[in-house]
Amino acid sequence: MSLACSTHSLAALIKERATMLKKVRSFFDKRDVFEVDTPVLSDRAPIDHSIDILETMATDHIKGYFHSSPEYAMKKLLAKGAPDIYQLSHVFRKSEQSKKHAIEFTMLEWYRIGFSLKELMSETKELIALFTGDVPCEITDYHSIFKERFDLDPQEDPLHVLKNVSKEYGLFGNDYDRQTYLDFLFDIAEKTFSEDALVFVTDFPKEQAYLAKTYMKNGKELAMRFEAFYKGYELANGFDELQDSKVQRKRFMSSLNKRKEMNKPSLPIDEGFLDALDHLPDCSGVAVGFDRLLMLKTKSDDIKNVTYKGM
After folding, report:
1. Strand order in 41-42's β-sheet?
2. 7-136+194-310: which CATH architecture?
C-alpha cells in the first residue's frame, strides 16, 4: 500500500516508521550491538568529491558541516574502545533531490569488530529482510558485470574505449574522466539486475575503495567493499575498514584535487579522524538507507511518501 498525503496516511506513516525503527533496534539488541548518537554538525567535513556537503556558520567565525554519514564520528568511538555499535541518523547531501534522493534522509550505519566482509553481507541481508521478507540473494563482482554487459575490463581498458562504449549508451558531450564513464556504465548495468533477488556487488576497483581496505586478486588491486541492490534501489554500502592514516590521507588529497578540477570548494581534512584510523580495531561497517527500505516495505515510489517531508 502506497502512503498518500492525507490524515489517514499520516497516521499510517507514523505507525509504519515507528514499527520499523523498533524492529531495527530489536535486531541489534539481540546481537549486542549498541546504539550511539553522534553529532550531525562538525567543524570538519567528510571528504568525497562525489558528495556535496551542506554548510552553515556555526558561530560568527566558524564554519560548520552537516555530516553525510556518521562514519567519521563512529570510527573515532571504535578507536577509543567502543564495542559493536550502530546509529540511526539524519544525514545531509546538498542538492540531492529526486524520488529516490533527499537532501535530508535517515541512514542506518553499523560496525562489527572482527567481522569479515562476508559475515557483514550475511547480516545486511538479514536486516534488509525485516523490510522485504526473505528474498533470494545473488553475489557478483564489479569486473564480471562489465565483462558480461559491455565486454570491458574496467581497470585495464583505456579511456577512449570506455568513452566509445559510453557513447553507445547515450553519454555525449565533453570528455569525462575515467570514473565518470565507469559510473555511467555501472548505472546502465544496474538496471539489468534481477528484480527478484537482493544483488550484492563486490570487488570494486581500488580507485573506489574510499575508506575501505584493498587486496590483490588475479593481479588486480581491488577494494574490499560491497554494495547491495534490490528492485532498482541501491540499499547498502559496506567496507572492510581501512586502518592506515597515511593511505587515507593520500585518498583525501586525491579527492580534494578532483574537487578542484570540478570547481567544487575545498574541504578541511579531519585530522582527528585520520589519527583514529591508526587505532581502529579490525572491523567492517555498512551504511543502509532506512527510508529506501521503508519505500520497499510500503511499495512507495517516492521518498517523500515515507518521510514527514511529504505530509
Report:
1. 41-42, 63-66, 55-57
2. 2-Layer Sandwich (3.30)
